[in-house]
Amino acid sequence: MNKKFGDLIRQARKDKGYSQRQLARHIGLDFTYLSKLENDRADYAPKEDVIRAIARNLSLDQEELIFLAGRIPQQEEEVLRQNYKDMPLLFRRMRENPDFARRVIEEASQE
Fold first, then answer.
1. How far, rounded to the nearest angstrom, does the alpha carbon of residue 60 sit from its chain's CA centroid?
2. Which domain holds residue 85?
């Protein structure tokens, strides 16, 4: 089952015993925006620093949460820029061929 950003942070928040207002106060967000994030109804993905703050406060993996939110960590953006011509082909092959995607991920995991 694919995780959703909002479901993951909602469950982690509840597991920690925080209300939306408490967590929002800890990370400096408006609680209504946090509610939109949890319900996947925000107009835009949160900025990386907000995602990292949420992850820290909820003991979640920061990198995983960034990707799950539909963002790319800033440190990875340079790799994309350096290889921008090859990225469309790579992503298209991964999308069209799940076996290829699994092999790429397995190979990367072995490092």
1. 10
2. 74-109
Same domain (yes/no): 59, 92: no
Query: Token pair of 48, please?
Result: 């990386």
Going residue by residue through the chain, which has 111 residues, state the pLDDT in tens, using 9 for 90 and above.
Answer: 578 999 999 999 999 999 999 999 999 999 999 999 999 899 988 999 999 999 999 999 999 999 999 898 888 888 888 988 998 998 899 999 999 989 988 888 886
How many C-beta atoms lie closer than 10 Å to residue 55's C-beta? 22
- Same domain membership, residue 38 and residue 83: no
Do 30 and 21 meet the contact criterion of CB atoms below 8 Å apart?
Answer: no
> Under a CB-based contact definition with an 8 Å cutoff, are residues 64 and 3 in contact?
no
Whether the Cβ atoms of residue 9 and residue 54 lie closer than 8 Å to each other: yes
